[in-house]
Fold this sequence. Notes:
Number of helices of chain A: 12
Number of helices of chain B: 11
Low-confidence stretches of chain B: 380-386
Order of helices and strands of chain A: HHHHHHEEEEEEEEHHEEHHHH
Oligomer: heterodimer
CATH class of the largest domain in chain B: Mainly Alpha
Largest interface: A-B, 52 and 51 residues
Bound molecules: flavin-adenine dinucleotide
Strand content of chain A: 5-15%
Structural class of chain A: alpha+beta
Amino acid sequence: MDLNYTPEEQAFREEVRQFLKDELPSDISAKVKGGQRLTRDDHIRWQSALTKRGWLGVNWPTEHGGTGWAPVQRHIFEEECAAAGAPRIVAFGVNMVAPVIMKFGSPEQKAHYLPRILDLTDWWCQGYSEPGAGSDLASLKTRATRDGDHYVVNGQKTWTTLGQHANWIFCLVRTDPKAAKPQEGISFLLIDMPTPGITVRPIILLDGEHEVNEVFFDDVRVPVGNRIGEENLGWTYAKYLLTHERTNIAGVGLSKEALRHLKSIARDQRKGGRPLIEDPIFRSRIAQVEIDLMALEMTNLRVLADVQAGGAPGAESSILKIKGTEIRQAITALTRKALGPYALPFQSEALDGGFNGEPIGPDYAAPVTAQYFNMRKLSIFGGSNEIQKNIIAKASLGL
Amino acid sequence: MDFALSEEQRLLKETVDRLVRDRYGFEVRQAAADSDIGFSRAMWATFAELGLLAVPFPEAVGGLGGGGIDLMVVAEAFGRALAVEPYLATVVLGGALVEHAGSDAQKDDILGKVVAGETLLAFAHGEPDGRYDLAHVATTAVKTPTGWTLAGRKSVVINGDTADTLIVSARVSGAIDAPDGIGLFLVPSDAKGLTVRGNPTIDGGRSAEIVLDGVTIGEDATLGEPDAAYPAIEAAVARGIVALSAEAVGAMEVVCDATLDYLKTRKQFGRTIGSFQALQHRMVDMRTALEQARSMAILAAAKLGADRVERERTMSAAKVTIGQSARLIAEEAIQLHGGIAMTWEFAPAHYAKRLVMIDHLLGDTDHHTDRFIALTDGQAAPAGTF
Lengths: 399, 386
Ligand SMILES: Cc1cc2nc3c(=O)[nH]c(=O)nc-3n(C[C@H](O)[C@H](O)[C@H](O)COP(=O)(O)OP(=O)(O)OC[C@H]3O[C@@H](n4cnc5c(N)ncnc54)[C@H](O)[C@@H]3O)c2cc1C
């Protein structure tokens, strides 16, 4: 056993660092580190820099213009990006629909959509969930009926993250309501958002932010050629996508960065005239989450090494999701706690880039409590933590 | 032992329960919270009419002479309504300071106006580096021939932007964190040299950042002995903890009920999600946390009149329990509701925000754990207590 990174991996880390130093726009990393809002253009600028370097397709094979990186390299890349304050790559196109298109799409679909994802022509969003179909996704009702060489789509999707920026949405729709099992009557459609009959309405989250949307479909005509694979086999493709949704699910790099931020706040805050980080109760709270994170990092690396050696992660990815989100949430809760009374003021305007007004309290305070509440989503989406536990109990433990 | 409310307390409870049930729906609350001042003056006038602003004060000044339990009854109802009116700032903290430290003339004047709903107060005590330490006062008060000059900063002053009078703590003598040497000063909101910057808080309320830049006030603007205010501050904060604890219990009740209701109605996989045992146990944990919190809210209310150490130790214990229960219930309510609980439109999300923020007011769980240890180890517990 050798738990060190190989010399090649260390050299790779240096290369990534240098790239981030040269190409990550400093106004964007300042926003990320300061917890400020990112505009559509911020995302595009950062992803363009990656495209230029050939690094946007982190998980893609080289034949489609991806990096062809091994799992450990991807992990290093993600860790360095988080440490540098790079925005997370918006996953819906490059990391979600793209793998499905690569695996199940027609040659024409591959040729059309994949380059447009890499060159940022298209911004994708994910149309899976519906008001009545959350954890029980297979109960979805959005209906697609065949009319010649089109489907006519009617229904509603919800929780569509960043749908307000998107021009394409990939959807699960019901094409056979009479199928023996709900999973058997579902198809996977790619839908052009400007098509008549589509309405996108914002949902404001509890932190006041516009992050998700409702998407309504009213007699929306979608060419049959926009279907992935075969009719009524959409569930198979969706399940394949879900395994990709769970890559980097542990979020170790992000939690490490969040922990560094927590510590710097705890060093600045005072309790009884001393830095808060020297307070025994608070110090032990930080230590506990730091230790949890150390363990998670090792678990994550073990899974990655296994994948690198050709294994397929099963219940392990559920473990990574549960622990990863619990740790991230614990860090955001401690960061909120660290602020003391300054957790209360809600200075929304301070979250806009270029804000140069007077902060309320310390300049790092504004985003902290809102982020704590926002991060409650981590244990709800991407398969809730309860659903992940069900998966482990059934698939791995045979219960 | 008797946990029943007295006849007067039952009447009070009926009055305030009816008010919040009939006239304080969630939309009313949201509209008030979204307004510039962050609450409704009309609602405040209604509170005055119903006698709610008189509850904790002695009859001599027009009060109802209520104790901790009466305050609990009112605050719990406000918690259920998620009320945003400045009851804590004006009646509970401000009123208690005047009652404990003020002269008879000041009590008559100020508390009379508070009871009538004619004046609003705020306690300008917290400071940028003070965290939750009640004795930390860096703001200075310097004697002049005709009165005092105040200089310093006050932070996160709840409802400080609408108060007619700020009750400002300032140091007359002693080290920055010494209980001795602190005075309380009445500063009108239009005083020269006073800057009050108001802002919304994440739980739908308002707070203010305050700068005192050589504010001069007269001799008569001191509340009590100008260097011996600490006991009054502690007593006022104790009253604040009783109110906050009860408010939290009211809010927890609403959130628990809403979650239980959701578990019984939301269907996934062809059955109500409440049929999943994994969620049943979580719901049970929430109810258990609520009952523990309620017990401590009652204990705190009952001990409001006790001797200092017993009172303070109980307040700290209550605040720890409330902080833990409130966070657990807030986080679990969101989780068990799923995505819907993440939205602005959904009332329990706002209750959850208030519940978590209550731990950031008047000392959090860590602060009160420290304090509980100090108060417990500092002396042998008197017989009959625990
Ligand atoms: C901020 C945010 C962004 C999102 N972005 C997207 C997006 O871009 N695209 C998209 O399609 N969806 C998105 N989602 C939706 C997300 O995937 C769903 O919220 C999630 O699947 C849970 O569904 P639900 O909200 O309907 O909760 P429900 O499924 O109703 O669950 C409610 C509670 O019951 C629990 N539960 C359900 N079933 C079981 C069971 N069998 N055993 C034990 N417990 C159970 C859940 O864990 C949860 O605690 C997003 C959600 C959020 C909050």
